[in-house]
Give the backbone structure.
Amino acid sequence: MKTALVTGGSRGIGKAICLRLASMGYHVIVNYVSNDAAAEATLAEICSAGGSGELLKFNVADREEALKCLAGWQEAHPGEYVEVLVNNAGIRKDNLLLWLEGDEWYNVIGASLNAFYNVTRPLLQPMVLKKKGRIINMASLSGLKGLPGQTNYSAAKGGLISATKALAQEVAARKVTVNAIAPGFISTDMTTGLDEEALKKEIPAKRFGKPEEVAALVAFLVGDEASYITGQVISINGGLY
Ligand code: NAP
């Protein structure tokens, strides 16, 4: 059975990706950091739909913790490897730079950009050796255009987009593709509390996207038909730029 790891897989977009990959026959490793109940509910949903999965709790922003957990998983599963990695975990801490605290900067960069290194680096070698792998990084519209009040988040996601393009060129010859997805507004816990009615007016499609729509894009990118697509940033935003 092929294995996929989805960071931040317990809720929101990551959860929809876990369910979709499990329905495609992947054994899904659901990563999360703190909400045990949500993670267990996601795993239960995977299993009750006939899929296979496991939980792997670690903070993607913590290099040593991520390395220890991933090495532990590999030791417990000799001969297996993570063929699909979705770097999806992320947080928002919006504030104007004038008032942005150090923690708000470093935590947001940590959960998206440093996490890309912390998780991808240990999992890359087996993909390269097996000459088969898919890496999908969850960026954001904010990382493409920059949004006021999000210098931290825009920097994290913009960095992630550049890392995607650079790594794609490093590993393309080894049949590993690396792409980024840039969602606009998607209905999850991260967007609860935003003024949805006002924001919807600005979106050409006049609605927020659904996590399942992002998961469908991931499903396409992991498939064999997408093997010539690499180093790309694919927007999914209802026409909002
Ligand atoms: P969400 O509903 O807030 O879920 C976040 C997930 O990430 C949870 O599973 C959470 O685990 C996990 N997580 C957070 N920090 C982590 C860490 N340090 N280590 C491991 N796991 C961590 O978020 P979402 O809306 O689904 O967003 C998913 C990704 O899409 C993020 O990268 C986000 O930036 C990006 N994105 C979202 C939108 C949107 O409109 N929703 C738009 C553009 C981009 P716990 O449950 O344990 O906290």
Q: What stands out?
A: The beta strands are 3-6, 27-32, 52-57, 82-87, 133-138, 176-183, 233-236. Residues 205 and 238 are 5 Å apart (CA to CA). The pocket of NAP is lined by residues 7-8, 10-14, 31-35, 38, 59-61, 88-91, 111-112, 138, 140, 183, 185-186, 188-191 (CB under 6 Å). The domain at 3-236 is CATH 3.40.50.720 (Rossmann fold).
